[in-house]
Amino acid sequence: MSSSGGIIGDMEVSTTRTASWRASRLKPAVDEYGFVSKGDTRLLDKKNQEKYYTEIAEKYVKFCGSSDSSIDLDVKLAAAIPSTGTIAAQGKNARYADSHNAELASIILSMRKLREGIVGSSRIDAFSSKAYMFMIRISILMKHPDSYHPAIQHLLYDIHPYVPLSASEKQEFAGYLVLHLASKMEAYSEAFMIKREFQVTDYRVLQAIDAMIQGNYWSFRATRRKVDLYKARLLEDAEQRMRDHALKCLGKSYFTVDVNYLESVTGTKWEGLKKEFGVGWDMDSAGIITVRKQKRPEQKVVPPTPTIKLDTNFKAWE
């Protein structure tokens, strides 16, 4: 009995050590700096800010270099990661279930610390402008609005009045804010206010907003193919609702539709529509999809026409 108990005990210890070793591999590296909001004032120093910015940039470049292809990198960047608040609550030594998410979360966390340091030191200069533009672009690719939304506002309203952005930079970042408001928030009035305030003239941004307001999924998809990677990432927030709207329109407009036409309109294969969107339509062997069955009008019983017999002796002219 004692022998078996000892074996079981050794197995439990071994399992615990293995789990601890695996967890340690997924743990982000301990960060040198803490949050200014939590009492760590080292990032209020300008030299520390510049040093930390370089470290973040190097960490991001290293992360990009770990991907096998641009498609693989895009998937990793778009992976779901905890919100900034959740990461901060868990602390800088928090462990995450996925190694890629851990790296992304570490970068997001570091950028928040740097933003707190820049804002806390009231720093408004060329460095703060460059750092904010870098962090905004990365956060957009990571689909992390908690990071890029306040950062864009700080760049446009606090830094830009004193360290003016170039014309192209102003168009770029004001365009990001317009797309975020329209795509994710569905705040079209605010989006048009920003467009007017910063004189956004990028026709692709304006075309995307018009498509969302009109529910024109065809135009929306055409615009997504024209914009750069950052704007395309922002437009992803509206993709599902635009496709849902297109499917509803098809369901109310057609009795039958060809599968090739349906796939071209929705941008999704027939199997994907059934699996991801729960489309319950039927397709026959000829590739014709029955969207809804046509109701035949009820046959009304027509009363017989009465026959009139005229008197043979009747004369109409008399």
Secondary structure topology:
Elements: H1 2-26, H2 46-65, H3 70-77, H4 84-90, H5 99-120, H6 126-141, H7 145-159, H8 167-183, H9 188-197, H10 203-214, H11 217-226, H12 229-253, E1 256-258, H13 259-266, H14 270-276, E2 282-283, E3 288-290
Antiparallel strand pairs: 1-3, 2-3
Give the C-alpha Rg.
31 Å
By DSSP (H or I, 4+ residues per run), the number of helices equals 14
Q: Could you say how many structural domains there are in total?
A: 3
Fraction in helix:
55-70%
Largest sheet, spatial ordering of strands: 1-3-2
Protein name: CSN8/PSMD8/EIF3K domain-containing protein
Organism: Choiromyces venosus 120613-1
InterPro entries: Ureohydrolase_Mn_BS (IPR020855)
GO molecular function: hydrolase activity, acting on carbon-nitrogen (but not peptide) bonds, in linear amidines; metal ion binding
Task: Give me a quick take on this structure.
With 318 residues, the chain is an all-alpha fold. It has helices at 2-26, 46-65, 70-77, 84-90, 99-120, 126-141, 145-159, 167-183, 188-197, 203-214, 217-226, 229-253, 259-266, 270-276, and strands spanning 256-258, 282-283, 288-290.
